[in-house]
Amino acid sequence: MSGKDEWIWPARPTNEAEYSAMMVDLDRHLATQRLQPAQRSLNAARLVSIALKLSGTPILSADPDRGEPFGPRDLLARVADWCDATYGDRNKIDFALGYVVLPLRGTYWSLRIPLVFGTVFPFADRDLSNTGRQLTTRATGPATHNVLSGLKGVTQNYASQLTDIEVASVLRSYQRGYVALTALDELKGHELFSAARGDYGFSVEALLDGRALGKARWDNAQCAEKVLKGLLGRAGQPFPTNAAQGHDIVHLGRLVSQHFSLALPESDLRLIYCPPKVRYAQVAIDQEEAWVAHEALLGVLGHLRSIALPPGGKRLRA
C-alpha cells in the first residue's frame, strides 16, 4: 500500500458529526501527500471506499437515488459534497490542455484549449450560449467546440461586436494552439518534459499579467529549452549543459533537427531565445515582444508533434 493509501478509519459514520470528523482527518492526510484541493475529491472518495470496505459502490455516480443516509452510495456522494462546500472553486478541475494568448482590439486574451480524446471539430459562433456538442453518440455526430466560448472572461456583448476577421483570428489561434499544446501534453519519457509544461503555464500567466514580462520571456524560453533537451535525452543523444550553449535555443533546435530529420524554423528559435539578463530585468521587455516569443514557441511545438510521443506511444487525440 502506498503512502497515499495508508489512511484508516475505524467505522462508517452514522451522523453528521462523525462524518465531519472523518472528512477533516482524511483531508489532513491528503494534504500531507501534497495533493492540491482539486486533486483531493476523487482520492478522498477512493480512500473512503477502501477504508470502509465499500467495494462495488461506484465512486462516481449520476444516479439521483443515494439510498439511505450514510449508506454506501450516500456516503461517497457526501465526500464530493464536502469537498465542494469546503474548497469551492479550488475544488474544480480544469480539463484543459492549457491556454494560448492572442491579441484582440489592443488587449491580450487567454484562449482555453480543452482536453479532448478522439476528434473534436472547432467552430466559431458569436452566440456564447452555443458551446458545442460535448456528449456524442453515433446518432448525434462528432464532438464540436465553440472557440469563442474559450476566451477567458469574454462577455456576450464583446463577442457580438467581433468582426469576421477577428472571429477568424480566434479560430486560427485555437487551431494553432491545439496542435502545439497537444504536442506538449504528449511528450513523455524524460523528466524535463514535466518541467517544460510547468514553464509554459508560468509564461502564459506572466504574459497575461503584463507586469513580469521578463519572467514571461524567460519561462517561455525555458519551456523550449527543456523540450529540446528532453527529446535529445530521451533518444540517448548528448546535449550541452554549459551556460553558453546550454541556453542556446537555436543550437539546441539544430541538434534536434539533425537527429530527427526535422526542419525546425530558425526564425522562431531566434525569437524564443532569451538571454539571462532579461531574467534579472536588465533589459526592458514589452508585452508585444513577449507575445511574439509565445507565438514562436507554439510554432516550434507544432513542428515537434510528429516526434512528441515516445516509441510505441499511442496517440489519444486527432
UniProtKB/TrEMBL annotation:
Going by the entry's taxonomy, the superkingdom of the source organism is recorded as Bacteria
Spell out the protein name for this chain.
Answer: Uncharacterized protein
Which species?
Answer: Arenimonas caeni
